[in-house]
Structure formats: structure tokens, C-alpha cells
Design goal:
By secondary structure, the protein is of the alpha+beta class. It has five helices and seven strands; from the N terminus they run αβββααβαβββα. The longest helix has 18 residues, at 2-19. The chain is globular.
């Protein structure tokens, strides 16, 4: 009997932990679609409703191998937060490209925070309040907890060049 109780408890934890990724996909009336709302990992983009646009942009983006090599040497003690709206065309284009760059430089994904916001660019459950984010996507780069810089909406030159500029402080 005791073994059965332990099994039920463990099964319950497993069930709810597997379901937790989907809790952050909600229907948004303003956007008239399902959106990511709250914290997520990159894996959320590998299934519907996001996979169609994510896969296309990720696959089509060509990273700059020379800059990737330089970036790989600069990522120690770096954390990155991406604030995005899955309803936003800029986010649908730029976020997959940025994640491809991160994968190319072997950026540790446990140092990446992804936050989905609504059309007001807020998400109280992820501590994103009104007025903190003006445009999405916003890529915020930190070193040892201090903000080094941001890439807002789209890179100025390329993600590789903009990241390198932020990381080396030029």
C-alpha cells in the first residue's frame, strides 16, 4: 500500500511537470490566437502553434562562422533574456535566428531566459511590467548580473556582430 502511494505521488509530479510547458500557451483575444505568455524554453517553439514559423527562420538563417568563433570565446559568465511576443512578425523572424546563433556558439541554454508577453508587452507572472519593454523582441545581455546591452527588434548589423560588439564593449 505504501509503495502504491509513492507511485501515485511520483506519477502526479511527472504528469504535472510534463504539462507545465503548455500552461504558458494561452489564447489571447487581442491577438486572436494562442500566444506564449510567461517563461519558456526554446523547445516550446518546436511544436504547434509556433513550429511553422520557427523552423522556417531557423533553417534559413546562415551564421557567420568567423564571428561565431569569436563569440564562442566571449560567452563566459553571460546570461541572456529574450522578451518576445509570438503574435509579432518581428519576433517570428528574429527569435529563431538569434537562437540559431546561440546554438552555433554552444551557449548554455540554462543561461537563457525566454519570456512571452501579451500585446501590451507585459507579463506580470514573469515580472515584465508595463513600460519596461517598448519593442519586441528585446534581447538583453548580462554579464555577472549586470546588463551589458540590448538588441531591440532586429540587429543593427547582424546578431553575430551586434552580440560581439556588446560583449567586447566596443
Amino acid at each position: 500500500m505504501k509503495l502504491l502511494k509513492v507511485f501515485i505521488i511520483i506519477s502526479g509530479f511527472a504528469f504535472f511537470s510534463c504539462q507545465s510547458g503548455n500552461r504558458n500557451i494561452v489564447f489571447n483575444e487581442k491577438a486572436n490566437q494562442d500566444i506564449l505568455y510567461g517563461y519558456a524554453t526554446p523547445e516550446v517553439f518546436l511544436s504547434e502553434p509556433f513550429a511553422v514559423w520557427y523552423d522556417k527562420e531557423y533553417s534559413n538563417y546562415e551564421t557567420n562562422s568567423l564571428l561565431v568563433d569569436s563569440l564562442t570565446q566571449q560567452i563566459a559568465d553571460i546570461t541572456i533574456t529574450i522578451v518576445l511576443g509570438t503574435w509579432c512578425p518581428d519576433c517570428r523572424r528574429e527569435v529563431p535566428r538569434f537562437i540559431k546563433v546561440l546554438n552555433s556558439i554552444n551557449f548554455p541554454l540554462e543561461h537563457l531566459t525566454i519570456v512571452g508577453v501579451d500585446r501590451g508587452k507585459v507579463c506580470p507572472k514573469a515580472n515584465v511590467r508595463e513600460g519596461e519593454i517598448e519593442f519586441v523582441p528585446t534581447f538583453i545581455i548580462f554579464k555577472k548580473g549586470e546588463e551589458l546591452g540590448r538588441i531591440i527588434e532586429s540587429p543593427t548589423l547582424s546578431f553575430e556582430e551586434d552580440l560581439l560588439r556588446i560583449l567586447v564593449g566596443s
